[in-house]
Structure formats: structure tokens, C-alpha cells
Write a structure and sequence with these properties.
The complex is a heterodimer. Chain A is mostly helical. Helix content of chain A is 73%, strand content 0%. In chain A, helix 3 runs antiparallel to helix 7, helix 4 packs across helix 12 and helix 5 packs across helix 10. Chain B is mostly helical. The chains are: A mainly alpha, B mainly alpha.
């Protein structure tokens, strides 16, 4: 009898451990996915930080433009929820533009604002899907790429200039490892007068001329630099994941205050309602899929 | 007979748990392994590959999802 009871106890203990054993490793960093973790690695470089912030600004603006184009295609006036989300995304753009890349909190702010941008994009998508049927969604998907915004072209050029400056810094380091004093090609590249392939080709040719001992030294320095970047980004991530929700609440408060300056229109009221709901952690959007409305797409075939 | 059944069940459970734990540990080790950090002599190709570690493609973008 005692043996039976012991066996049953052991069985129960083992059973309670199964979920612990089978459970996937929990994300070390709250809401920070692998992609974002890789993106912030370059932000220890000033140009790297500028690149990421400009890229985030472009991504949000692109989605706002697409959202507005989608609204123009929907043959209905009942799009206030979607407009409210776009209004909040516009406030988000202002916040991204105001970030100083040299600020010690730039990485944290980038991660926070990217998370907000991702969530707002998701909100727009889900609200749109709850308002229109699948056929309309497919039509909108086909039409969305027709729209081109010249302002985004300007932003794209700024980003490319920053990327060249960032890559130029990396090449300066690499050339330094090989003790190459003539860096005119890097300057030409940074100014947009030659391609990155030319600089890479030049560097590669130099690598084949050095001794084995020098190669080991160079490679060791490259690894050390890479590890340093990873360590720095991990430290930033640790700092970012702490108080993530508190910062999110603060941002929502600020956004709410900024929205009050935009007027009393219905769209702004809806936006404020959304922000208040987020503050209260209440999701009040209803997705009644049994009552899907059919919106015609303007200019459809 | 009942005792034998219970003991067999416990044994099977232990085996399953051990296999699962071992697999998880092995999987974690695989993910952390990166041969490029463990070679003793660096080749020119290693350095050329390493050159690209921190460079950005000019069409590089940050993704935040689709609106549709």
C-alpha cells in the first residue's frame, strides 16, 4: 500500500514537471523579436542610429500613405475607425522625427516606437478585415502598389546617404585593421561617386597580399569588434525590456495630450477613445464577422 | 499486476522526460554553435566574409507589417 502511494506521488510529481520541460524557452526580452534585435546592433554607430530611425519613419509613412489610399478606394463614409488609427500613426511619425540619434536612449526609443508602429499597423489591418469581405481585400491588395509617393523617394535618398556614411565608417575600421593609409576610395564611396562593390573588391585584393599571421590578427580584431557590438546591443536590450509597459503607458499619455491639440472632430475623438482604451487595457473594437459589409472599391474592373 | 503497470508507466515517463530534456539541450547547443569563431587559422575568405558582417545593403529596410 505504501509503495503504491509512493508510486502515485512520484507519478504526480513527474506529471507536474511535463509542462516545464516541454515549454519553449520564454522570450528573454518582452515584445522584442529577433529581427529588431539584429536591427539595433548597428545603432552604436551614430550613422547606424540615424539609418534605423529614418527607416522606421519611412516604414510608418509608407503605411500611412497606403492606408489613406485604401480609404480613398473604399466607397463608403464609415471609415472613422480606420482614420483614427491613421491619425495616431501620424502622431507616431512626429515622435520618431523628434528622436535624437545621439541620445543614449535612442535604441530604447527605436524599439518602443517600432513596437507601437507594428501594433497600429496590425490594428488597421484587423479593423479593415472586419469591415470588408475577402474579395474587396484582394482587390485592395492588387491596387495598393499603384500608389507612389514622391516624398518617400526623398526619404529613401536620405536613408541611402546615411547608409553610405555608416558603411564608410565600417570600411574605415576594416582598412585600419590592414593598416591601409589610402582611404580615398572610401571617401569616393561615401560621396556616392563609386559603388560599394569597388570598395569591397579593393579590400579583398589587399587581404590576399598579407601574411598568415597578419590575417589571424585582422580576423581576431574583426571578431572582437563584432562581439563588442553584440554585447552592447544585448545590454541595450536588457535595459529596454525593463519597464517596457511603463514607458508604453507614458507614450500613450503624451499621445493623448498631443491629440487634444488636433481638435474635436469625430476622428480625433475616436483616436482619443482608442488611446484611453489602451491605457485601461480594454479592447473595445467589435469584430462582428457575421455582419461583414460589402464596400465597393472605386475604379474596380 | 497493478504494481507492475504503475512501475512501467513511471519508467516510460522517465524515459520520455529524459529524451525531451536531452533534445532541448542538444538543440540549444546547436543554435549557439558558430564555427567561424573557433577556427585557429583565418583564411582570406574568412576575412572577406567577416567584412560583410556589419555592412548594410543600400536597399535595407525596417519592416512593421502590411496594412492589408
Amino acid at each position: 500500500m505504501r509503495k503504491m502511494l509512493s508510486a502515485i506521488l512520484v507519478l504526480m510529481l513527474m506529471g507536474s514537471m511535463i509542462p516545464l520541460v516541454l515549454a519553449e524557452e520564454t522570450e528573454e526580452y518582452f515584445e522584442i523579436n529577433k529581427e529588431t534585435q539584429n536591427e539595433i546592433e548597428i545603432m552604436s554607430d551614430n550613422y547606424g542610429a540615424q539609418v534605423r530611425l529614418l527607416q522606421l519613419e519611412k516604414a510608418i509613412k509608407k503605411n500611412i500613405d497606403q492606408g489613406e489610399y485604401i480609404l480613398s478606394l473604399l466607397n463608403t463614409t464609415d471609415t472613422y475607425m480606420l482614420e483614427a488609427i491613421l491619425a495616431e500613426m501620424k502622431l507616431l511619425v512626429d515622435e520618431v522625427q523628434s528622436v535624437d540619434p545621439d541620445d543614449s536612449d535612442a535604441v530604447q526609443t527605436f524599439v518602443d516606437l517600432k513596437s507601437d508602429a507594428h501594433n497600429l499597423t496590425k490594428d488597421f489591418r484587423e479593423t479593415l478585415h472586419s469591415l470588408v469581405n475577402t474579395a474587396t481585400i484582394n482587390e485592395l491588395r492588387l491596387k495598393k502598389n499603384e500608389y507612389k509617393d514622391k516624398e518617400l523617394d526623398i526619404l529613401s535618398r536620405r536613408i541611402r546617404t546615411c547608409i553610405r556614411a555608416y558603411n564608410g565608417n565600417q570600411f574605415h575600421k576594416l582598412y585600419g585593421y590592414l593598416s591601409i593609409k589610402d582611404k580615398s576610395l572610401i571617401i569616393e564611396y561615401s560621396n556616392g561617386n563609386c559603388s560599394i562593390e569597388s570598395v569591397k573588391q579593393n579590400f579583398s585584393e589587399m587581404v590576399y597580399t598579407i601574411s598568415s599571421a597578419q590575417r589571424n590578427q585582422v580576423y581576431s580584431k574583426m571578431k572582437e569588434s563584432k562581439i563588442q557590438m553584440k554585447v552592447q546591443s544585448q545590454q541595450c536590450l536588457t535595459a529596454t525590456s525593463a519597464d517596457f509597459q511603463v514607458r508604453k503607458q507614458d507614450r500613450i499619455h503624451i499621445r493623448l495630450n498631443n491629440s487634444l491639440e488636433k481638435g474635436d472632430g469625430l476622428v480625433n475623438q475616436l483616436m482619443q477613445q482608442n488611446l484611453n482604451d489602451k491605457l485601461d487595457n480594454n479592447i473595445t473594437k467589435t469584430k462582428d464577422l457575421s455582419n461583414v459589409k460589402v464596400y465597393e472599391v472605386k475604379g474596380g474592373n | 499486476m497493478k504494481k507492475k503497470t504503475i512501475l512501467s508507466l513511471i519508467f516510460v515517463l522517465i524515459v520520455i522526460l529524459s529524451i525531451t530534456l536531452t533534445y532541448n539541450i542538444y538543440k540549444e547547443k546547436l543554435e549557439k554553435q558558430d564555427d567561424s569563431y573557433y577556427s585557429d587559422d583565418a583564411t582570406a575568405d574568412d576575412i572577406i566574409v567577416g567584412m560583410n558582417w556589419n555592412l548594410l545593403d543600400e536597399d535595407d529596410e525596417v519592416e512593421i507589417g502590411e496594412m492589408i
